[in-house]
Amino acid sequence: MTLVILVQASLAHADASINEEEWMQYKTRFLDRGGRIIDNGNHGISHSEGQGYGLLLAYLADNRSDFELIWHFTRTELLLRDDGLAAWKWDPEARPHVTDINSATDGDMLIAYALALAGASWNNKEYVAAATRIAKAILQEAVVKHAGRTILLPGANGFSARDREDGPIINPSYWIFEAFPVMNALAPSDAWELLTTDGLYFMKSLQFGPAKLPAEWVSLRTAPRPAPGFERIFGYNSVRIPLYLARSGVAEASMLGRLRQSLASDDQPMATVDLTTGKRLQPLTDKGYMIILSLLDCLTDGTKVPETLQQFQPNLYFPATLQLLALSFLREEHAACL
Q1: Using the 8-state DSSP alphabet, how is residue 17 labeled?
Q2: CA 116 to mean position of chain CA atoms
Q3: How would you write 155-194 as a 3-class SS string?
Q4: Contacts of 40 (CB under 8 A, 6+ apart)
Q5: Which family does the similarity line name (predicted)?
Q6: This prediction's pTM
Q7: Which member of 114, 223, 260, 330 has the lowest number of beta carbons within 10 Å of its beta carbon?
Q8: Is residue 13 very low, low, confident or very high in pLDDT (cuts 50, 70, 90)?
């Protein structure tokens, strides 16, 4: 059954949905010769999230050699922990390069998800076996019960009720809904379906301040609230929330529409947001951010995505990654939007 589910998931991406030119631009800017994805908006560091995204995009571009290159760096430089998860931060200027051994659950899940899809599509049992080990480790170290809900801790250490007085802490942008069925195929547990159900509950209920947007870091000790010790903002990472919901197909149109209205309007441009005051902070004008608004418009009212947002001209790692994920999804599932 596991193999069948993985093959079905991989068949959903059977044809390359990122074209050769787009992948060449992406890898020229962000992939070094050793397989490291460079976050050029964050002092040139690398992290498990970036490696996971790199693997997923290489798979969606059907580029097996680059996939293996990225995987080689990931397994030799980041998969150093005893529990099977990846260290999240790698700094080229530091010695040793790993400067924070803690895990980041979104990075771990992206790595496992991409390995599983590639392993099933390309008949590579080693990829599937590696994905299975990571999925089991996520289940063991980062999936917990709290107040009747199944939640995803952002990392193995530092976020649980044992670790913090205001714990557990969650980061809503770490819920990669499309990956949960694949994780369940790798490491069967009812927890994965519960993560979908309870994750949707949080996405609906986390509406803070005048903007009614989720905080990046949320304390669940009592009623959900922006976690003390973190900025009370809707930040860059949170932009992924509607993209993940759309790509997974688990959200109702009403939820996507509400998020769209909260993200921007004619007189309120898309930006990071101070959740206390509702003030717009840093404008999010890169195509990789703007295409998410356009994607939501198409899914909720049929408005086509402007051609300018379909043109890929990468500048910064994070929005470039989001743009390719959005374009890939639209080509696979909603070609009428283009």
Answers
A1: S
A2: 16
A3: CCCCCCCCCCCCCCEECHHHCCHHHHHHHHHHCCCHHHHH
A4: 29, 30, 316, 317
A5: Belongs to the glycosyl hydrolase 8 (cellulase D) family.
A6: 0.97
A7: 223
A8: confident
User: Any bridge partners for residue 90, and if so which?
Assistant: 46, 98
Mean pLDDT of 231-260: 96
Q: Kindly state the average pLDDT of the residues 255-272.
A: 93
Task: Kindly list the catalytic residues.
Answer: 49, 106
Q: DSSP labels for 241-306?
A: HHHHHHHHT-S-HHHHHHHHHHH--SSS-SEEEETTT--EEEE--SHHHHHHHHHHHHHHH-PPPP
Please determine, for residue 17, whether its predicted confidence score (pLDDT) is greater than 60.
yes
Classify residue 214 by burial, with Cβ atoms within 10 Å: 0-12, 13-18, 19+.
Answer: buried
Domain covering 2-332 in this structure, CATH number: 1.50.10.10
Length, in residues, of the chain? 338
The ranges assigned to domains in the chain are: 2-332
Tell me: the pLDDT tens digits for 144-154?
999 999 999 99
Torsion on CA atoms 35, 36, 37, 40, rounded to nearest 10: -140
